[in-house]
Amino acid sequence: MARNGKANGKGNAKLAAVWVGKKLKRKEDPRLIQGTSHYTDDLKLPRMLFCAFTRSPMAHAEIRAIRTDAARALPGVVGVFTAHDLTGLGMVPCAIQMPGLNLPPHPVLATERVRYVGEPVAAVVAENLYTARDAAEAIEVDYEPLPVVVNMEKALEKDSPVIHQQFRTNRAFTHALKNGDIQSAFKKADRVVKQRVINQRLAPVAMEPRAVLGEYLPGENRLTVWSATQIPHLLRTQISVMVGLPETAVRVIAPEVGGGFGSKLNVYAEEGLVPWLAMKLGRPIKWAETRRENITSTIHGRDTINDLELALKKDGRILGLRVRILADMGAYHQLLTPLIPQLTALMQAGCYKIPAIDIEIQGVFTNKMSTDAYRGAGRPEATYNIERIMDVAAHELGMDPVELRIKNFPQAKEFPFTTVTGLVYDSAKYQESIKRALRLSGYDSLRRRQKSGWKNGKYYGVGVSTYVEICAIGPSAATPAGGWESGTVRIEPTGKVTVLTGASPHGQGQETTFAQLIADELGIHPEDVNVVHGDTLAVPYGIGTFGSRATAVGGTAAYLATQKLKTKMARLAAHLLGAKPADISFGRGRLSGKGSKKSISFGELVMAAYTARNIPAGFEPGLEATHFFEPSNFTFPFGAHIASVEVDGETGEVKIDKYVAVDDCGNVINPMLVDGQIHGGIAQGMGQAMWEELIYNEEGQIVNGTMMDYALPKAHLLPEFTLDRTVTPTPVNPMGVKGVGEAGTIASTPCVVNAVCDALSVLGVKHIDMPLKPERVWRAMQQAQASAQLEPQPNDTPSSSRAKRGISVSEKAARSKA
Amino acid sequence: MQKNVTIDINGQPHRQAVEPRLLLVHFLREVAGLTGTHIGCETSLCGACTVLLDGRAVKSCTVLAVQADGRSVTTVEGLAQGDKLHALQEGFWEEHGLQCGFCTPGMLMCSHDLLANHPTPTSADIREAINGNVCRCTGYQNIVNAVKNASRKMAKRVSARAGAR
Ligand code: FES
Ligand code: FES
């Protein structure tokens, strides 16, 4: 792996990469494939009690009375708690501060009112799980229904029911991002393309539901909380505030965590309440979420309405972009809720040169569960907006969507590239990724197939999305809770290495990738490197795993800590070998002086640092170093995805025929793991495009709140993905890695929708909102056909002209422009 | 009311008086202490709890412990023979068929059933066979590769054994 610059060059000649770049099998896997690892719900402590919740079945109501007698009377019930019993327990926190933000109090258990279905109203603690659940069901709550509002546009109307009366409005905030002369952009435009697109509400559905186990030892004044979380340290800070213990008395452990996708990047009511109850009752208490609770009461993703207007010259050059976004907050702000749409604003320009932009966002309260970070968090929405409007524009201009995109890319030499939204994109070769994707997909032949398909009355379509995303989150100035990450590297006396990382992976495989990285730096085997994470007592304060940051920020911290150690080791080796520190080089298992005449084994040197009998003056014994890495910028991975689909004209059923992804996440430590992230990401983004949608009805009830009704991607629904990559290292960190956790999700959603709309453009279909269920696609076809019959068909509408031309901007054209 | 049941789990008999409503998955996890079998939905929709009951894959959240009385169950903990991993476990490891690992025990047991009845499945067969098991991490592609990998290994071992005879 080529790395940009040495962290400290003191003669530590670079070793050739042996492990970095290899498809190493994961170190995590043996315990996972044998069922011997422990997720939170697998843990059992002596005298442990079980917790269950009574949750609101109403979306908006006054609580008149809560009757708990029947529940208390059940044998095995230890305690029943409502909001009145929680004196001393803090609120559910939101970390976002912004001018004009309406931030309602968010009690752990509902006080006078409930504001969404699934809001916790009472908690039961019992000797076993079944009893706890029986008791939770035996609690009777009298509700006085209030008018419900679930639709954002209705929520903003004057006569709408107001969810938090103190604000006298359901508007949570407004946020604007404007740059350039938008008026003149639209005045000068040859064409203005408009489209409303809806980014529907999704449920993250990590396969491991949330779970919390709290244990309090009064003698030691020690509260230990095991939680399925992506952010153990941030959670520790928040729990200490909520329960009123000094932070030093709280230990948070994220044991094995079964996926998060942002849904565990939060601080939930249960994470404060369960430990607090464990303190009150003096016994360990465990709560594991049911899947039903997971869908009603764990954060949701997306849920925005986006009105897009793109101003273009007739040759396809973009002049300006206007975007109006309504973003559904749900009933309360969870940890980052109001931040997510702001990320959409930042990334709204995508990978295009846009001279003027005008974005306005309104956050809106509704009687629903909170939205928050879900894989991509604001960026999928941004990418979907820009990639859809680019396609609508291409169709209206009669241009190939690839040609339109290439025309508006910044050139490789323009990087670092400052966007109209004020970001500085680090490095990219957008032309290169689309070129590869065209070749790999056989774009021209797909277009030929499309043409012949039309002749046969079948609808074949090709979709493209070229994306850029913001990763390695991020410089602290741009984040609510610090954007750095910590890494500690300790070489133990026997030469085995412990790496402590503040990142808290939960499936990404950093136990393996960090071991590869550090092994190469020290000239040892990855088996000898043990990566520890997710325990606040063992690991220095860290931020966590989200925003595709663990490797780019956390890995860099560990890498830089290793450089500190190497400097120290070189000094000791020089002392022992009678050489100059600058002349010491690291080989496989050995450190040598100049010309390798004299050398010392890695093990001997390490032992010498611990025995400390023969050390240079002022040398600090031991071999441990910590680095807190503060990145100077985000990183901006990018790529080009191409999908082809066939739409059944009779049923509206969509079959994804081909899916090609060319991604660039900078340097790659383990290609197998990077591909795995892309696969999973594509599937998740495809899920949004094709099947997933969490539906609240007018009464605020979730109508598809089970895994039966909420349509997750299943194996037989997905095509085989073809992957390739380009490698454009980032200058933001010394390893040149960018991050890859969310790329697939960001790119695939618009790619699939573009393909389907492309397929149906011959019928005059311009846009279909997601998910592209057969019924919705069928309706769009019917509607288009009906309106085509009504209107006299002009001879040369853009879409028909494109159809006639047979759309043949080719790989050749793309190549010549690239 | 409690009922005595005896369930053979990975070759070990487990005897316990249980509530008739106790789910097999809770018997495995709480009574036998085998937490490798996971609960992802408790409503037979995710497959995380899949185990073998008398050799056939079942979702153990949809079986009562009393229904398994006198029968034998294999869980993920029973797949490896001592230190020797099962071909499926090797396949998942080699092909990166797991990320967070939560769906993995269920995927392994479900594919075990597939390979027992269909030793050389195509990709489409595998995708069809695991369509009751949800994985949110992998996009399934490497799970398909893992099952194929195992199928190849098992075929080789069978022919090696035949050759040795
Ligand atoms: S837990 Fe049994 S199928 Fe989901
Ligand atoms: S590996 Fe995480 S759900 Fe399958």
Overview in brief:
Chain A is 30% helix and 22% strand. Chain A is α+β, with helices and mostly antiparallel strands and 818 residues long.
Notes on the protein architecture:
The complex is a heterodimer of chains A (818) and B (165). By secondary structure, chain A is α+β, with helices and mostly antiparallel strands. Chain A contains 21 helices and 28 strands. Chain A folds into three domains: 29-37 and 484-629, Aldehyde oxidase/xanthine dehydrogenase, molybdopterin binding domain (Aldehyde Oxidoreductase, domain 4, 2-Layer Sandwich), CATH 3.30.365; 40-146 and 209-257 and 264-297, Aldehyde Oxidoreductase, domain 3; 301-473 and 633-817, 2-Layer Sandwich (Aldehyde Oxidoreductase, domain 4). In chain A, 30% of the residues lie in helices and 22% in strands. Chain A has a seven-stranded mixed sheet with strand order 3-5-1-12-9-10-11. In chain A, strands 7-15-14-13-8 form a five-stranded mixed sheet. Chain A is globular. The model of chain A is unreliable at 1-13 and 793-818 (pLDDT under 50). Chain B folds into two domains: 3-78, Beta-grasp domain (Ubiquitin-like (UB roll)); 87-163, DNA polymerase, domain 1. Chain B has helices at residues 24-31, 87-94, 104-117, 123-129, 141-164, and strands spanning 3-9, 12-18, 50-53, 56-59, 72-74. Chain B has a five-stranded mixed sheet, sandwiched between helices. In chain B, strand 3 (50-53) and strand 4 (56-59) form a beta hairpin. In chain B, 54% of the residues are buried. Chains A and B meet through helix 1 and helix 17 of A and helix 1, helix 2, helix 3, helix 4 and helix 5 of B. Bound molecules: FE2/S2 (inorganic) cluster (2 copies).
